[in-house]
Amino acid sequence: MSLPVAVVIQQLQEPDSVVPILKSLYTNLNALCHSKAEANHLVSRTLNLMSAHLAYKKWCGVVITEVLVKNYEILSGSGLKFVNALLKILETANQSTDIKLFNATVRCLNKVCDEIRGKPTLTREILTPKLPVIIQLYLNTLDLNPELIIESLYNLMSHHPTTFRPFANKLNSRLVEYLKLDFSSFPSTLKFHISRTYALLPIIEKTDADKVWSNKLNGVINEIVDILSIFKDLIDFSQDSELLSLISNPVFKVIDDARIFPFLQIDISKPETLLQLSTRLETLFSLLVGFISTSLGMCVKFPLGKVISLMEIIFSINTHYLPVKRDIRDEKAKALTRSITIKIQESSLPILNALTTTFQGPMIIYLTNILLVLETSIPMNKKAVDSEEVLNNEQFTTKLLSTVSKILQLVQLYQEPQQLVRFVEAALILVEPRINVNGSSSSNIDKANNTKKTKKKNSQAIPMADLLSHSHLFDGEIPAETIDTVRTFVNSVITRTELPSTQHYKIMRYLIIEAVKSTHFSYNNSMSSELKRLLINAVTYPGFEKVSLLPIVSSIMGDDPLISVFNNPRFPPVPQLIDKSVESDSEEEEEEEETTVLPETNVLSDILNKRTFEYANDTVDTDGKRLKTEQKVPQIHLQDQSESISSLKYQPQDVLKFKESDTPKVAAKSPHQVSNETNTSKHIPVTQMSLTPSHASTDAGEASGDESDFEMPQIDIDGDSDQE
Amino acid sequence: MEEVIFYVGQGDPTDKQSQESYAFAQSVHGSRQLQMFRNADCAKNGAAFTGVGIGEKAFIASPNKALINVYSFGKDGIDQRMPVPEQVNCLAVLKMNTSPSDQSLNKPSYRTPWLLAAGSKTGKVYIWDILSGELIFAKDVHYQSITKIAFSKCGTFLITGSEDSRCLIFKTIELVSIFNKDHDTNVKPYMSITDHTLPVTDFYVSNGLINDVSLYTVSIDSTLRVYNITTRQLMHTFVLSSSIECVTVDPCGRNMYLGLTNGQIRVVPMFKVNNMNLERAGKFGEILTVPNDPELQNTLTAHDSAVSQLEVSLDGMSLISGDVNGNVYVSDITSKQIVRSFKISTAITHISAIVCPEEAIKNDLVADKRSRLLPPLKRVLQGLDQVSYEVNVEIPEAQTHSDISFQHWLDAQASDELSFKIGTTSSTGTTTTTSSEDGQKLAKLSTAYAELKAKYDELLADHRALL
């Protein structure tokens, strides 16, 4: 229950709790306008709170303002006062300020700006004069909550690029400062806000903003390739001539002035310095993703081929195929090089995801190339996928599968299933039951077994005893994220391609086992929507299938509407004409007929321009002018569904020969005849939907006195009577 | 919501500059004319529209010049004239988003399609990447003029029909994978249809799952053939008594509508009744003869001359048809009455129906030229370097759902308030009040309040006693 405004005003003097006040204000917001005096009183109390000494009171004032500005009258009357009060709080903000108060103030100020934006007079009177002060204060307080402030600055810059122009350099330098900090360890939302704000900065340019944007983007790409070329000294590139030619392509040449970061200091004798490579690249990848996904609001020239080539370079630097250079003998450095390459590949996957989301169609040009390149990052052991390696790099494999499924979703049909086999194998390895013992432990088990024969009590075997007798206790849990990703991937694959039989049956086996398990262990025999979708897709896209999966799926989830339609196929009802003369003579039925509306025709015509069909002949001449032709609008009698049940009428009996049907003959005459008929004829055709067989059978049941679930549609006689 | 039809005429051959030629965007259910395009005429199927409203484009191939004219919605005149290697007959565009994505993106101010395909009089197919202007495919695929070119709705296939009686189906991915090392410039069709004996005049590609996509082809040889594209099988053949000019199919495949040379529109149902059950017409692979319909039970007779274009409305209840005399009729399919009619002076060569929200039409701001104009289409097929491939595109903005519910916001405030009250975080630098002082003050106020309350209660009791 909301409090009356008068009570709220009273409580604002010394608020005990602001939550009920906020709730009341939110629900009474429109009622506030009825009494201007109360509204003014409320505003002045709120302003008083904001100018109080106590942080709590200030905070109360700020959050109340956030609700009040939703009311246009209050906003237009007191908007400026609110902005001034909020700016005053921001001016005094420093490290010792309560962060909750600071956050609330910034959010409230953003809210006020959002509410004012788009309203020309308010913008001119309040927002435009105060905007420079707001931006300046935001820049000054950036360090208090970088995530919130950068997000706010992004919004201000995208909406007011001209006003933002004087502050762009300062923001740029602040952003670069953040980038040069330990960017890779920042929270992901902060990384996202920094990269997209950096990408949006060229919007403030007076002329050729697109060119500035393009130069900045190319600078980032070139700097990435420049760092990747360091791997020349770690990995033997000479075995991959294509990689060499790509990496030395002149389009990737870095212009020193355009560099964002200083040179890296890497010393092979200190292997830990190699880690700088991955952290620097991760930062640059984030920036690149920002450029790909941030809208500048104008047409830009995007170097799609260059970015795809960059991805090819990243995935070609692969220690599965290229050996580490012989001069590096330190095992630690070798191991680090291997793990860094995987880490780099993992952190570059968001680039592909962003490209796929943004460009869609043009990405199809590269689809085969990309899948080929990504395929190389699946570790192989001889001819099979290396399951141990896949599990060791679970996070990378999961992200890789997610990207592949996203790329596959660009097409509806992909007829090169061989390219997907490795991914499918890797996906199935990830969801196989796991045992939480590593290779060395399992060798210990063997040892333990062998030593038993010596009849000596081996203390080493004691910890292994549980593992041998209760192995199920050691089953590793598969992370939910992995399961979700694998299921999404499998869904993308089975709906787009016909996999080889081995992989097809493996997937089907997995699906059925999971479905049975899921329903069995669920209290109400339910399963996740993702798994349901997968099972349905397994039926609708049979792929390589000798024995249908439908019976199994029907047994597991027969109550699913789609599976039910699959098992009981029905054809769509066909629109039909019924001559009015066929209809019942009884007055009662006539009345019903006049007052009922056929759902399909009228509902649709209501949607389309909210008017019923105008049965008038309008002619438009070559000049586009409408020539009016006198024609009376015929009365269209529409029949209710219940009526249609008692007089089933179908299409002609036999399409092959198109015999005359038993249905009453319907006018199908020349335009002139039609025109005459619409004016004079009493036999006005009636639009009616014929029934599906299932309806027909229901009706038969009723006729024979059987009970049926079929419900007659409720007819609102009063509601439609004036439509005639 | 508004359903809009675009119709374009053939133009007068004597009017070289197409001064008297207009194309129109017209509401199907209202009398509203939404847009007129000047100097717009084309050969049969020689136009392609991306949609209705600001930001949408129309591509219309000039019928007597090697030119493709580009129009922007909201602007009557030609926006760009694109010279092409030869005169093209028919056009098709493929949008950027070939399949639904998980992430919702806002539509940019100008929707640029991805591919533009054209079929020429000499039987050559051209495909341009509109975003870069590059010609990425050009090849002689037919022996005679191409009559229609179209992408399947999902963009997986490109289909061409020609006067050489053949219909070819290509996989789009094979045509555009120009940077694939194994890319064969001599792309072979995915499926080649050679069953027709006379020129293929029109075809229709159905919507649905990729396994269910059907192709309906019609020809002057009076046959309609239905193929399953995925299985590459001929499913049905319907033989009519007159040459067929155009075809369209009900959105849920209930009826096929055939525009005949004699001006009739023949409705061919896909289902028949057998003992109260609906069955699909004809067995698999069967040849069905559609008999004459003297009583006009399944025939619409609105037109006096050959029907050149057909389209079905969104609800499947209206048929939009154009003829060689320039008449466009919107007819109610069940009653066979003409609901609405439009006329231009020359033969109708293109009709398409598009549904859009009301708001799309109201917005009247035209974007600046820099965003609106497309890069010119290249006229030569040149080996493109992968690294130098650039696309001109307005990056779409991700849809943000900033409007968190009030309850959610209130919960956040309640949480903040709680931390204020329990004093986990030391508050404000401006205040000097300590928590102990607060406590004392609170106790004092509480006592005062209790006293006041007691007095008030007493007064209230007295008052009640007096009453």
From TrEMBL, chain A:
It comes from the Eukaryota. One of its GO terms (cellular component) is nucleus. Residues 661-724 are annotated as: Disordered. It is found in: Nucleus. Keywords: Nucleus, Ribosome biogenesis, rRNA processing. GO terms for biological process: rRNA processing. It holds the Pfam family RIX1. Residues 672-697 have a biased composition (Polar residues). Residues 6-184 form the Pre-rRNA-processing protein RIX1 N-terminal domain. Belongs to the RIX1/PELP1 family. Component of the RIX1 complex required for processing of ITS2 sequences from 35S pre-rRNA and the nucleoplasmic transit of the pre-60S ribosomal subunits. Regulates pre-60S association of the critical remodeling factor MDN1. Component of the RIX1 complex, composed of IPI1, RIX1/IPI2 and IPI3 in a 1:2:2 stoichiometry. The complex interacts (via RIX1) with MDN1 (via its hexameric AAA ATPase ring) and the pre-60S ribosome particles. This is Pre-rRNA-processing protein RIX1. It comes from Candida tenuis (strain ATCC 10573 / BCRC 21748 / CBS 615 / JCM 9827 / NBRC 10315 / NRRL Y-1498 / VKM Y-70) (Yeast).
UniProtKB/TrEMBL annotation, chain B:
SMART domains: WD40 (SM00320). It holds the Pfam family WD40. It is found in: Nucleus. GO terms for biological process: DNA-templated DNA replication; rRNA processing. WD repeats lie at residues 300-341. GO terms for cellular component: nuclear pre-replicative complex; rixosome complex. Keywords: Nucleus, Repeat, rRNA processing, WD repeat. Component of the RIX1 complex, composed of IPI1, RIX1/IPI2 and IPI3 in a 1:2:2 stoichiometry. The complex interacts (via RIX1) with MDN1 (via its hexameric AAA ATPase ring) and the pre-60S ribosome particles. Component of the RIX1 complex required for processing of ITS2 sequences from 35S pre-rRNA. Belongs to the WD repeat IPI3/WDR18 family. This is Pre-rRNA-processing protein IPI3. It comes from Candida tenuis (strain ATCC 10573 / BCRC 21748 / CBS 615 / JCM 9827 / NBRC 10315 / NRRL Y-1498 / VKM Y-70).
